[in-house]
Amino acid sequence: MELDAFVFSRRGTLAQERATGAQDEEDVMAAVNRFTLKPLKKEEVALFTLDLCNNKIDRHFSRFPEEELEKVNRLTPGRPLMERHDLTGTLPRGTFFRSQLHHDGGHISVRPEVYVLRIDDNRDFILNIEGGVYRETSISFSFRKPECSICGKDLRRCSHIPGRQYGDALCHFIMRDVVDVVEGSVVSAGSQGTGFVSQERAIPMTASAALNRAREEFHRPVSLWSAAWALE
Ligand SMILES: [Zn+2]
Fold first, then answer.
1. CB of 202 within 8 A of CB of 99?
2. How far, in Å, from the CA of 189 to the mean position of ligand 1?
């Protein structure tokens, strides 16, 4: 039985404002201009680097394995950067134009670069990033399999609980089979994370609430599935 993909959004921090040396300026603008209809000059854009996601266990007790980070890294260029308001929704502000995997010891993160047009509508957004008011980022993506770190099954098919300790091991999700990156967004520092987003209704919920809902839905046709389950 094919289970639905999760849509998940995840927090990171804004890595840096991009300092462009003269030497790579041409490369950068060439990369930007692959996504524009008319070639832009560097004065027309603000460039930022984001730290979108990494291979550590996060506060939702989930973790990307390296091969999925590579997939996210490949899928991010061309996706929109949104400005997320807690109450009024989101506005597109920029476009990711290239991305790389950043290695720091055993720590691996996806660091895409984004350009934002220096037009009046984006002025406050750019100032808020440059001034450190917007310093957190989140990535929304979908993936098919929340793998249990304890038993290796889809977490919807086992009874381990993310965040709980089993002997020496902390149970967490390993996010497998990333399907798509939907968007990245920038949010004001200290605002509440959105966590999982339910696909059909777009209600922000915690990871454990999303898992419980998925488990309930999975277990609903229990008379059909109990025989197969008993054989495992
Ligand atoms: Zn398990």
1. no
2. 34
Q: What are the distances in angstroms from CA 200 to CA 6, 28, 157, 228?
A: 11, 38, 22, 29
Dihedral in degrees, nearest 10, Cα atoms 74, 101, 190, 78: -30
Quote the pTM value: 0.75
Would you state the structure tokens that stand for residue 82, as one six-digit string?
Answer: 């949104």
Distance, CA 145 to ligand 1 centroid (Å)? 12
- Per-residue pLDDT tens digits for 7-22: 666 655 555 555 555 6
CA 17 to ligand 1 center in whole angstroms: 41
Q: Give the phi and the psi of residue 138 in degrees, each rounded to 5.
A: -140, 150
Q: Where are the beta strands (DSSP E) in the chain?
A: 6-17, 45-50, 53-54, 62-63, 80-85, 89-104, 107-117, 134-148, 165-166, 169-170, 173-188, 196-197, 204-205
